[in-house]
Amino acid sequence: MEEQLKPHQAERGQKSTLVGIAVNIGLVLVKGTAGWLGNSYALIADAMESATDIVTSIFVWIGLRTAARAPDHNHPYGHGKAEPLAAIVVAFALVGAAILIAVQSIQNIRVPHETPAPFTLAVLAGVVIVKEVLFRRVAQVGHETESSAVKADAWHHRSDAITSLTAFVGISIALIGGPGYESADDWAALLASGFIVYNAYHIFRPSFGEIMDETPEGDWQQELQTLAMTVPEVKGIDKFRVRKTGFEYFVDLHVRVPGNLTVSQGHDIAHAVKAAILDARPAVYDVLVHIEPV
Known about the structure:
This protein is mainly alpha-helical. Helix content is 70%, strand content 10%. The radius of gyration is 25 Å and the shape is elongated.
């Protein structure tokens, strides 16, 4: 069962990523054109953020395809680390986009310019709706597949929605305020860059933890220890470790058994513990059980 899980998860993640790429190509064209014609740097900055979405989504797609590859001689534990690596690339790309937007916003604030055109508000309202819907759909796929790369891709869509929303507010202030408020559009873009950096950290932190074999979120230890204790002759648990690699989890544990058992009996107990965990958690790829006599 667990051998079929990873290809299915990878396929779902890849499909959601390709949909995001297609949507972002259209949004870059719409926002870039509207920003140029409507004299709105916030909208142009928004288009730049969508352009980074395309690039990073390609990295996510590559990472998902690589993570789904079967183990080989050089990678006996599989290629799952490619998945959080792709998420980290997304995080750094977001930071780069935020810096670029912030620098250009500051330059525009210092140089007087015209108030953005009113029609840009309609464009931004549509963009916010599209990106929020896309975020929710991709986030759901990321949650169901437990993919850090897909979750990162989802949060990139959310950061784009936030950028569009701040641009909407900035342009509204510029239009309502009239003369003297023209730079509200640029202040909105500057504020959006801060939100983008926050989202980048939100993506980077769990992905880096996965690279460092950090204990996964959730009550894994208690649940799996309880399962191991249901196996006859298991008297206790000495050590327990869980790490996530791509779409899968690896479990290492030391179980205490009576010291008068034969090697064959200890071997059977280890297999029974492994089977109990694999049956309960299909996402677990392998379980290494060490027998401790008591």
